[in-house]
Amino acid sequence: MLALVIDVLGRVWPFFLLVGAGLALSRLRLLDAAQTRGLSAYVYWVGFPALLIHSLSRLGRPEPALLLGLLTYALIGLAVMAAVVAAGRPLGWSKAERAGAGMAAGVGNSAFLALPITAAVLGAETARLVAGVVAADFVVMAAAGVGLLGWAAGRSVGRSISQAFRNPVVAAALAGLAMGLLDLALPEPLDRALGMAAASGSPVGLVALGAALGLRETEGETAPALAPILLAALAKLIVFPLLVWIGVGLTPAPAAFRAGATLLAAAPTAVNVFIQTRAYGVWPRGAARAVAVTTAAAAVTLAAIALLLRQPPV
Question: Which residues are within 8 A (CB) of 292 and not within 5 positions of it... i.e. 6 or more apart?
């Protein structure tokens, strides 16, 4: 048990170190607000889209039982996001808070953190089975989240949905997924270039996140309210994985997929949520804090859930 906890912590701490590097650069005034926006723009337009195309194009076609499990996962994620958005209305939250918290509750750091932990704890075969969950996170949930951000920014529902699928991250996820389903491959030089850009997406995004956390409120900005951040964190780390465990268990998906999908659902809020909210100018400081809070809490919650899900040796 101790070894497993140490393994999970060892996988989480590198994320904190990169966030801390960005925070230090910001506090030392080596990165200002404009430079931080530049880092975020790189991740938004290059780093993360490259990662999604490079990884999702290798997924292949899921079997029918897995497809039903993936559909259930996606529907639960959408329901959690909708519940957080709805809960914010009687609580008096602004549209920006409701949209940002909803996206933070649904889009998890499945690709960079939870999938490697799944491979380490539940085995490489389970990680292979649940790799499609990354597509659900960054096609279905990310598209819904981007649509929410457009709604909060004052755009019509139709325009928000249309722009969601033109968003570079969502479009890249769709392109990678289509390539995987159709068994298409990029020319080797282009694939190598995408691989190089993909490797930079997460580290640069984490540094940008730390820098954003380190920037002091200026130009009339105020610190974000705590309630939307805490509700998003509770929904992401506890409610989402619990509902996935129950919901996927009602499908014919294999038990290994159920366990892996639950662990991926328990991933902390993705750095991409911060990148997207910054790009749309909707709740970026709140999203930055939601990513930081859920990532910190994941050092405990992911270890606990991994211990509960670990299959006994046979």
Answer: 19, 209, 213
Q: Which residue did the predictor score with more confidence, 244 or 18?
A: 244
For tokens 């194009």, the residue is: 57
Q: Which residue has the tokens 């659900």?
A: 136
Asked if 141 and 282 count as a contact pair (C-beta separation under 8 A), the reply is no
For 186, the 3-state DSSP assignment is coil
CA-to-CA dists, residue 20 to 36, 228, 264, 286, angstroms: 14, 24, 24, 18
Kindly tell me if the per-residue pLDDT of 178 is higher than 70.
Answer: yes
Cα separation, 107 vs 305, whole angstroms: 18
Dist. CA 162–CA 4, nearest whole Å: 44
Residues in CB range of 254: below 8 A, 6 or more apart? 65, 66, 69, 129
Contact predicate 26/214, CB 8 Å: yes
For the domain made up of 2-216+225-309, give the CATH fold. Answer: Na+/H+ antiporter like fold (1.20.1530)
Paired strand residues for 269: 108
Contact 257, 130 (CB under 8 A): yes
pLDDT tens digits, one per residue of 11-56: 667 877 888 899 899 999 999 988 988 998 898 899 888 988 888 8
Cα 31 versus chain centre, distance = 25
Sequence ranges of the domains in the chain: 2-216+225-309
The Cα–Cα gap between 152 and 147 comes to 9
* pTM (two decimals): 0.84
